[in-house]
Write a structure and sequence with these properties.
The protein is mainly α. Helix content is 64%, strand content 0%. The chain contains 8 helices and no strands. 10% of the residues are buried.
């Protein structure tokens, strides 16, 4: 599992770099700035207005202005049919990505509910399909509402802030557990943890600081709500906290429906 995760990330990172390099090499970076050379925030109204003004002036749409970057590149270099095929592939692939992200989130909520951190009803298992259907429906509705009322760029920034914080806390927790519970059963171990974990923390903090101000403020706001729920409801009901469960399930706690 660790080799698969790390190798997948490495391969995806390589392909992202190659695609970005190819796109920039094909039509150029074409940075979009204000009249006095100022930096415009991605996804901002000012950025959209500046892009519209450039196109209205008869110039080629800059790469950073395009909502379908690869399609735009292929059209510019006179491969419109390939551009349409790439766009079609993106449309077909996007639902699978969204479903995979929701799959992971539902399993997080499912595990929290099973431990007592969330209402037990969310840990209900469908009698026929053996999947956590209640938490899947609840998560799906919440995701649909968020997607309907929030711009996709801002939604991505908010999600990135929470994800970076979660990764940072995992790195901190691994180091803490190595000291406080060295004999704990582990499905796999992190090599060179006192090198890998600090580097992960530094990377997460650096990426978080690069996010827009709104995204930075959303994280402490949601964190305060989460802490309120934890101390008012979850802490007194946690099975692990009460010593009723050691946090390791049978068969390494494979979630129902994950086969």
């Amino acid at each position: 599992m660790p080799i698969g995760l790390i190798a997948s990330l490495g391969i995806c990172t390589l392909f992202y770099l190659l695609v970005a390099s190819g796109a920039i090499g094909a039509i150029g970076a074409n940075p979009v700035t204000t009249a006095d050379g100022g930096i415009l925030a991605p996804g901002s109204a000012e950025m959209a207005g500046r892009c519209a003004a450039i196109v209205a002036g008869g110039a080629m749409e800059p790469l950073v202005c395009s909502k379908e970057a690869l399609v735009h590149v292929l059209q510019v270099i006179n491969w419109p049919i390939m551009g349409r095929l790439v766009g079609l592939a993106a449309v077909l692939a996007l639902p699978s990505v969204v479903l995979m992200m929701m799959f992971g989130q539902t399993r997080v909520f499912f595990t929290m509910a099973r431990d007592g951190l969330l209402p037990a009803k969310l840990a209900s298992i469908h009698p026929k399909f053996r999947t956590p259907h209640v938490v899947t429906v609840v998560t799906g509705i919440a995701a649909a509402i968020a997607a309907a009322v929030l711009p996709v760029g801002k939604l991505a920034d908010y999600s990135n802030a929470g994800t970076l914080f979660a990764f940072m806390m995992v790195a901190i927790s691994v180091m803490v557990l190595r000291k406080t519970d060295p004999g704990r059963k582990r499905p796999f171990r992190t090599p060179a943890v006192y090198i890998v974990a600090p580097l992960a923390i530094i990377g997460c903090v650096g990426l978080y600081l690069s996010l827009p101000l709104t995204a930075k403020l959303v994280l402490p706001g949601w964190g305060a709500i989460g802490l309120a729920i934890y101390f008012l409801y979850s802490r007194s009901r946690s099975h692990v906290g009460l010593g009723l469960d050691d946090g390791v399930a049978e068969d390494d706690r494979t979630p129902p429906g994950s086969h």
